[in-house]
Structure formats: structure tokens, C-alpha cells
């Protein structure tokens, strides 16, 4: 094997290998988790987060704006404290609300942000004032069955 | 105290003792390779020949295997996913399994049997035919001239080959999923893209293959260098390279996955 | 200092408590061609490795070109070895390089000569062994004798002061054998090297060399010029040069009496 030929094949090999990595990077995956500094964190407390996971998407109007950074239990109030890391580009007013939604019936859970109308914006380290928890399917079903059963006897309002 | 400990280990039995000695020798060997690395950077020609030997010659087996593994994944995955009405997630399944696990691991196993064994046989043969001794007598260090380039050649080739394996696998999955089973091409790619994270999945997969590449490269050159200089010695050394590489790859894979696993 | 390029002074060497060489004293002078003879396992190759400083003596000294081989650091070792050329038993040509690159190897690795000068030198060395026409062949395309000649060209590439030959005649046909023998003698005389040949080819060596050491079980049992050796009455030398099956080196490995082991005969 001539030297020039080896060099040619090795060059081609490295090129194809890098192309494969590039393919995996650009076509197959997305680069998420912006480097520190280009995102800010906001916390939100929920009664129940259901099956929310760390790194779950945070969306506003269906657009991905950030990810769940960490999930903790606030042991004073026994509420779930979720830290969100939001892309610096997106700003939300102080009266925005966060809720835990499910994509499809069995899909993954994510956090949806609905913006309010306040002039002031949420700053790094702030918390959402208005939150609504995950819909727990079992609770929903049992509540439905319970009210159905109760409704058979008399029309009692829920709770 | 040291003396006592050494005697204690000897009493544990001959097999363990020889393995410990071998492990120690392998570590010293790695240090020697690293010490002679700067010399290689000044001579890229030597390295090019070894990348050709370890990398280019493995491209065919790696990419064909990748293609077929991807196609099988797509067929099996489709069968399972459609029971849950989630067949549109096929792209995610194929890409995640390949990028995170199969690319690095199966790629490493194939690499060990194709390139690792070849390196061991080549180095072992050089030892048996006194080529390494001849080099030593010509005042050329065989570790610098023969071992280190082969080590780095394999080291560089492995991640590139693993990436090729994953890429061809995903193309295979695309062929089956979209062309054969009629899934929508747009949703195949976009679902995949939104679910696969570059750092979490692709980069971690590449990091794995770097570890595997280091292990296989070291095992291959070491077994060759350590082989008894006979025909029988070389053939057992070659077998040992493949077996040890496979074991080490799978054990390392578990350790690395456990480290990278961030579930809550 | 004498002009002895290789000098053993009461050197001993043992491997894992098995003594391989015991109290060896010998010297090889400039321009001298010395053969070391002995049966398999008599320590001949160990002796060569001591000269090449791949091994160090446990006792006594081995000095090569005036340098003591013990306690050399890597630079000292390589400095020593750059004075030594060695022809290995089967040539030990690098299988992934062609003939030209094989001969050029020590020049490229050890000297800073420009490529054009390396080319001239390589062709010169190949011409000396008569294989300039084989420059572009790969080692596996060469016959055993040709491979050995290429290896010889490679060994003399850096004009060594000392040449070592490890079994240069093994496995060669008579013509190749004569060619190699002639080359060894010519190169030795032309370059003025001190040469050491390890061999068990008695007839070829007796015609070729200046001095012979006989080695048996790690000890020099006899030494002398070829004529002295032919005239020697030492039983081991007699057995060796005449190739007798039985003698001081017994045909039978020590064993209990045959009949007793078969269970026949009287107690």
C-alpha cells in the first residue's frame, strides 16, 4: 500500500467519522441546556407534581423555553418545589402562571407557562405566584366515580 | 508489612497472583506508552498507518453491522410500539438505543474482534520474529516506534467508528420505518430530534466509546507485547484480546452508564 | 587500553536462580571474527544479549567498546547500541516495510541525514550485499538467504564497530550459506569490525573465523584458532565437530536403570 493512498483513506475515514458525529449532532439530536449564563432560574411550588421528571421541557404556548432543573420537597409546607431554568431570551410577567400538563393521554409531563399582563417581569430566582398541579388520573377517575355514585341518590355539590 | 502482604497474596493462589502481576505490568506499560506519546505527534505518518490499519479496515464491518442492527431495531421496535399506538416514536427508540448503548458497545465488540485481534497478532508476530528485539538493538525503542502508534491509532478510530455505527444504524432504522413501514419521514426525524439530547445522549455515547477505545487499544497492544514468542502463544494472545476486550467493555459500560444515569 | 572491543571479565549470569553463564572471560579485538559454539541451551544467545546490554551480568563485567554495560541509563544504552550491528537468526526484517525502507530504518531513526543522502547510503549497503535490484520488494517476497542478506545490509547501515550474528547459517541452502559466510568475512575485513558469530555450524565456521570459543552448560570448555580446534583432543570438542550422538553430552537423559524401571531383572 502506497503512502499517499494510506493518507488518502485515513483522511477520508476521519472525515466520514466526523460527518457521522455531525449527523448525530444536527440531524438526530438537539443541543439543549444552554451554557450557564444564558439562562435564568425561576421556582414554582406545586401541591403535586405527578410524574414530572428532571429535564422535562418547559413550554409556553407550546414553544420550548427551558427545562426543569431540579425537583425538591419543601419540608415546611410539604409542597413540591420545582426549579426551572429558562432561556434568557424569554421573559415572563410577574403574574404568569405555571401548570403541569401532559402531552397526550399517556405522554410525558411538562410545565406550561401562561403569561400574565403585569409590566414587571420575573427575575432570576423569583417564584411563580400562581401554579396548578398535575392532573392525577387515578384521583380524577375516583372523584368522577364518587360524584357519580353520590349523584345517584341526591344532587350533592362536590365537596 | 509490604513483604507480609506480598506473601499473603501469593498464598491466595497462583492464578490470582499472576493476574495481579499482569495488571501491574499493564499499568506500567500504559505509562510507558504515554511517556512516548509526544514522539508520535511529531510523526503523523506513523499514526496515519495505524489509523488505516485499525480504523479504515474496520469501516466496512462496522457500517454494515450498524445498518442491519438499525433495521432490526426498527422492525422489533415497530412491533412493540404499535401495540401502544406509539409507532410514531420509532425514530426515538432507534436513535436512543443506538446512540446511547448499541453504537458504543456493539461497535466496541466488533472493533475488538476486527482491529484488536489484528493488532495483537501483528505485535505478537513482530515479537516472535525478533523484529522488536532488532529494533531495540538498533537503539530504537519499540514502545515508541511500534506500540504507541498502534495504541493511539486504535484510540482515535474507536469513537469515529462508534459514531459511524450509530449513524448507519439510524439510516437503517429510517429505511425500515419510513420506506418499508410507511411512517411519516418528517415526524420520524423531528420526534427523534426533540427527544435525543446532544449532551445527554450523543456526547455521553461518544465518551463511552472513548473509554472502550482506550481499554481495547491497551489490551490489544499489551497482549501482543506480552505474548509468548511462539505460534501457539500468538493464537492464545489473540483469543485473549477478544475475550478480555469484550468483558472489559461490558463491565465498563455498566460502570459508565451508572455514572451517567440521572433518573429521578 | 587494548583494542579489545568486547571484553568479558569473569562474567556470570543466572536467570531465576538457574545459572546460564558461569565465569566467562573472553575478548574480541578489532578486525577479529570470533565464533561461539555450543549445543542448544548452552547459553550462546544469552552471551549475545549480554553484549547488546539487553541483559546485565550478575557478577564480573562485560565491557563493549570500552563501556561497562551495567548501570547504563537509556541514553547510555542507546549510545552503546548505536555502535553495535546485529543480524538476527531469521533476519527479523520489518514485515510492513519494503527492503529499501528496512535498510533505511536505522538511518531514518538514528541519524539526521537528508533523505537524498539516506537513499545513496541505502543503495550503497544494498550493493554491498548484492541486492540493489530487490530494493522495492517486500520481505515476504524474499528467499531465506536474501532476507538474511538484506538484514545484514540493515545491520551495517550505521557502520557499527561491533557486529553480532545470531545463528546466521540456520536453515539456509548451501549456496546461500556460502554467500552469507563470504559476506560476513568480507564485511568484517572491510569495515574492521569486531564480529561475534553464535553458531553450531561447525564446518562453515572452521573455515571462516579467526578464533573459536566452545561453550557447554554455561562454561567455556575450550578455545583456540580453527587449526587448534581441529587438533584438539578435548572430548566435548571432538564430539561436537564430528557430530557424534554420544560422548560427554550423553545420548540418554539420566534415568533409573532401564530394566529396573521395566520391572524386570534382579532386585
Automatic annotation (TrEMBL), chain A:
Q: Which PANTHER family match?
A: INTERMEMBRANE PHOSPHOLIPID TRANSPORT SYSTEM BINDING PROTEIN MLAD (PTHR33371:SF4), INTERMEMBRANE PHOSPHOLIPID TRANSPORT SYSTEM BINDING PROTEIN MLAD-RELATED (PTHR33371)
Q: What GO molecular function annotations does the UniProt record carry, in alphabetical order? A: phospholipid binding; phospholipid transporter activity
Q: Give the Pfam families listed for this entry.
A: MlaD (PF02470)
Where do transmembrane segments lie in this chain?
none
Q: Which NCBIfam families match?
A: OM_asym_MlaD
| Signal peptide stretch | none
Please give the name of this protein: Outer membrane lipid asymmetry maintenance protein MlaD
Q: Write down the species.
A: Chitinilyticum piscinae
Domain Mce/MlaD, chain residue ranges per copy: 39-116
From TrEMBL, chain B:
Kindly state the subunit structure of this protein. Answer: The complex is composed of two ATP-binding proteins (MlaF), two transmembrane proteins (MlaE), two cytoplasmic solute-binding proteins (MlaB) and six periplasmic solute-binding proteins (MlaD).
Where, by residue number, does the polypeptide cross the bilayer?
53-78, 158-181, 202-222, 242-261
Predominant localisation class: membrane
Alphabetical list of PANTHER family matching this protein? ABC TRANSPORTER PERMEASE PROTEIN-RELATED (PTHR30188), PROTEIN TRIGALACTOSYLDIACYLGLYCEROL 1, CHLOROPLASTIC (PTHR30188:SF4)
What keywords sit in the KW lines? Cell inner membrane, Cell membrane, Membrane, Transmembrane, Transmembrane helix, Transport
What does the sequence similarity comment in the record state about its family? Belongs to the MlaE permease family.
According to the UniProt entry, its GO molecular function terms are: phospholipid transporter activity
Task: State the protein's purpose.
Answer: Part of the ABC transporter complex MlaFEDB, which is involved in a phospholipid transport pathway that maintains lipid asymmetry in the outer membrane by retrograde trafficking of phospholipids from the outer membrane to the inner membrane. Probably responsible for the translocation of the substrate across the membrane.
Protein name, as recorded: Intermembrane phospholipid transport system permease protein MlaE
Q: Where does the UniProt annotation locate this protein?
A: Cell inner membrane
The family database entries (Pfam families) matched by this protein are listed as: MlaE
Q: Which InterPro entries match?
A: ABC_MlaE_roteobac (IPR003453), MlaE_Permease (IPR053408), Permease_MalE (IPR030802)
Single GO cellular component term:
ATP-binding cassette (ABC) transporter complex
Q: What does the record say about its membrane topology?
A: Multi-pass membrane protein
Name of the gene = mlaE
Organism whose genome encodes this protein:
Chitinilyticum piscinae
TrEMBL record, chain C:
Keyword Cell membrane assigned to the entry: answer is yes
Question: What are the protein's GO molecular function terms?
Answer: ATP binding; ATP hydrolysis activity
Against InterPro entries, the record matches this protein to: AAA+_ATPase, ABC_transporter-like_ATP-bd, ABC_transporter-like_CS, P-loop_NTPase
Record keywords = ATP-binding, Cell membrane, Membrane, Nucleotide-binding, Transport
| PROSITE patterns per the UniProt record, alphabetical | ABC_TRANSPORTER_1, ABC_TRANSPORTER_2
Cited Pfam families: ABC_tran
* Positions of the ABC transporter domain: 6-242
Record-linked PANTHER family: INTERMEMBRANE PHOSPHOLIPID TRANSPORT SYSTEM ATP-BINDING PROTEIN MLAF, PROTEIN TRIGALACTOSYLDIACYLGLYCEROL 3, CHLOROPLASTIC
Return the protein name: ABC transporter ATP-binding protein
Q: Which organism is it from?
A: Chitinilyticum piscinae
